[in-house]
Amino acid sequence: MTATRVAVLLPYPFDRAFDYALPDGDILAPGTIVTVPLGKRMVHGVVWESAPDAAVPDHRLKPITAIIDAPPLPDTLRQFIDWVANYTMAPRGEVLGLALKSNLLDRPPGRFGWVAAPAPTTARRQAVLNAIATLDRPDTATLAAAAGVSPSLIRAMADAGLLIPARRDTITAQPNPDAALPTLSAEQTRAADALRAGIAAKTFGVTLLEGVTGSGKTEVYCEAIAEALREDRQALVLLPEIALSAQFTARLAARFGAAPTLWHSSLTPAIRRANWHDIATGTAQLVLGARSALFLPFTDLGAIIVDEEHEAAYKQEDGVIYHARDMAVVRARLSHAGCILASATPSLESSINAEAGRYRHITLTARHGGATMPRIETLDLRATPPARGTFLAPPLIEALTATLAAGGQSMLFLNRRGYAPLTLCRACGHRVTCPNCTAWLVEHRAHTILLCHHCGHTERQPTLCPSCHAEHSFVPIGPGVERIAEEVAALFPDARRIVMASDVITSPDQTAAAIRAIVAHDIDIIIGTQMIAKAWHFPDLVLVGVVDADLGLGGGDLRAGERSAQLLHQVAGRAGRAALPGRVLLQTYTPDHPVMRALCAGDLAAFRSAEAALREPGHWPPFGRLAALIISADEAAVADQAANALARTAPTADVIVLGPAPAPFAMLRGRHRRRLLLRSPRNVALQPVIRDWLARADTPRAAKIEIDIDPISFL
Questions:
Q1: Which residue has the higher pLDDT, 192 or 266?
Q2: pLDDT tens, 571-599?
Q3: Which of 113, 214, 537, 713 has an alpha carbon within 20 to 30 A of 459's alpha carbon?
Q4: What is the pLDDT of residue 652?
Q5: What is the rounded average pLDDT for all residues in the chain?
Q6: Structure confidence at residue 577 (pLDDT)
Q7: Distance between CA atoms of residues 657 and 577, nearest Å
Q8: pLDDT at 49 over 60
Q9: How crowded is residue 691: how many other Cβ atoms within 10 Å of its Cβ?
Q10: Mean pLDDT across the stretch 171-189?
């Protein structure tokens, strides 16, 4: 009996599908998930639309072993995988690996949710009962997020008999687009009407939704979600950080009467498996997730919202290197869906696309509910420096004192984790560095360790200097948030404080607990890194102090000014979001820097225009294309050999090649790194140029070449 050839793409770093044999007469549609032999292993793969490989004779074909009883990968997802692979120059199989995980394929068993058992209760428990009344048998995580409590309270209520488990026919309760219609301002109504019309048209389009902090962008784009739901289509909301998921889960549950289906790395394998199947069968209509949610098997995706679209966290830097904001636009185009990019501080890329007419541009100019924008001022540290050994200038201390006395909340922002970024021997100047990376070790005094923030290497602070052998000579140089917290404790011992940094608050549950404490005004002073800059609403927060506003301006990064302006504006936007006016103090040595002037004037649009004028003549993004080739090897000589081989065969037509040069982190995780940059006008496709270049270059096998199309980080 003859066999039918079937192309199967495997979720491994292969760029092509492999032919397998299927008994004559059987038919497998593209997208079907199968089990096939690979060497001595049995692996999962997906039937793909690839031409058979005639070079392999029939008798050498291995058979398809099994057909998996799981939803097939939809056409639009397979097209998306092919597009991402071609654009990022990653192997197609490796991109498939983002969408196909073996542990997701088994059909999930029936699950239980919670229903209420009426009984006397406390205020926090009543909040749970109030939330459960609006949800359909929610699971523990969903109920905790909607009620603004911790999962441990849900379990305690179950132990006390206040909650009863009940079997659910489906995992995901259906959101109702009209469950809790918002009251919108005239400006918001115009924006929402435009977004609804775009979704109702069921055609691809991109809208940049720009609104000042506190303008109600979420309420507006929720109307686009509602329109997709009315059309019986699915909607995806992307977040840059999973720490935001608890807050957004509660907001979406309140608006639509059912919590969204979650997708991020902190979910348990069982929940991820159940959610994957709900999405693949169309049961889950509203999904809230991190960047990897773009690779979920949506059956009919009608709307994609990229919240805080300017965030660098949307760029995946390891494995398949892609930017989720840009790939969201592609996924929407393939799905005939609307894509909404929301931000108070849009990226220059999105702004230029809007100016050119490629994106529709909708702006919200006023804060919702009558709140006003905060007053932003600079504190010139040359004129009013902090006292020796401290980092808060006298005017900032005075503002903190006055805010505490008036009963308001304050926030101190420093985008640097740990206690001190550098540990130095005061006898000889020796700096404690990571043995695996070109980086200083950061002191984390709370855990009594020195830590590398790049590879995770840890060690105890040495008692003897390895260079001069002086005893107990090491001192911390510079501040991290732990050191600022120590200074605040000394200045205001009675103030209630919290440190919010990713190494202190490590899970969505911990984040939710911290946010609840701040909103309840159980905290007087918040000290944190960039995690406190994103989308939080603290009604009583009136003062924001930026400890080092100059921190992100150095290093020669193309986007340093743009990123600093975005981050500082977002931090400033946490102040004065309710009835009380806000005030922001920026400690800086460069008060005349364009970023500082733009922030104080409240004119980021003018800053973006000036930034664009600087980049356009040299064809720097977004006016040109950029790609990075990062060469790494265990030995420096091998990395140099590979980099020089690439330099000798570098293309010259239509592109400019910069380098090779040591990467800013010349050694990372024990590997030596060199970098070349390609720059070209916007109308030049870099991928064919790079493919031809790599084919001509004779590089040693021991060197690894990583390609980053559209790099946003140059480390």
A1: 192
A2: 998 888 777 889 999 999 999 999 999 99
A3: 713
A4: 86
A5: 90
A6: 79
A7: 47
A8: yes
A9: 12
A10: 87
Q: Tokens at residue 572, please?
A: 């400033």
pLDDT at 611 over 70: yes
Amino acid at 643: A
CATH superfamily of 186-369: P-loop containing nucleotide triphosphate hydrolases (3.40.50.300)
Q: What is the pTM of this model?
A: 0.88
With CA atoms as reference, report the closest residue to 452 among 426, 421, 498, 406: 421
Give me the residue spans of the domains in the chain. 3-74, 111-168, 186-369, 371-416+479-612, 624-709
Say which amino acid occupies 212. Answer: V
What per-residue confidence (pLDDT) applies to 168? 59
Please state which CATH number belongs to domain 3-74. 3.40.1440.60
CB of 483 within 8 A of CB of 527? no
**Is it the case that residue 114 has pLDDT exceeding 80?**
no
Nearest to 243 by CA among 482, 569, 529, 531: 531
The radius of gyration of the chain's CA atoms, rounded to the nearest angstrom, is: 27
Least confident of 81-95, 113-127, 178-192, 493-507: 113-127
- Give, in words, the CATH class of 624-709: alpha beta
**Residue 288: enclosing H or E segment and its boundaries?**
strand 286-289
Cβ contact 116:133 at 8 Å: yes
Torsion of CA 615, 617, 618, 623, to 10 degrees: 60
Pick the range with the lowest mean pLDDT from 17-26, 406-415, 443-452: 17-26
Look-up of token digits 């071609």: 86
Check residue 210 and give its pLDDT: 96
The H-or-E segment that residue 168 falls in is strand 163-168
Report whether the peptide linkage leading into residue 63 is cis, meaning its omega lies within 30 degrees of zero: no
Tell me whether the omega of the peptide bond preceding residue 617 falls within 30 degrees of 0, making it cis.
no
Give the integer Cα–Cα distance in Å for 586 and 132: 43
The mean-pLDDT minimum among 318-322, 369-373, 485-489 falls in 369-373
Closest CA to 412 of 425, 438, 393: 393
3-class secondary structure, 526: strand
Taking the C-alpha atoms of residue 41 and residue 707, their distance in angstroms, rounded to an integer, is: 30
pLDDT band at 2 (very low <50, low <70, confident <90, very high): low
Per CATH, 186-369 and 624-709 having the same topology is answered no
| CATH superfamily, domain at 371-416+479-612 | P-loop containing nucleotide triphosphate hydrolases (3.40.50.300)
Write down how long the chain is.
715
**What are the strands of the beta sheet with 656-668, ordered from one edge?**
656-668, 671-681, 624-633, 704-709
Q: Is the peptide bond before 622 cis (omega within 30 degrees of 0)?
A: yes
Distance from C-alpha of 441 to C-alpha of 459, rounded to nearest angstrom:
9
CB 283 within 8 A of CB 299: no
114 exposure class (CB count in 10 Å sphere: 0-12, 13-18, 19+):
buried
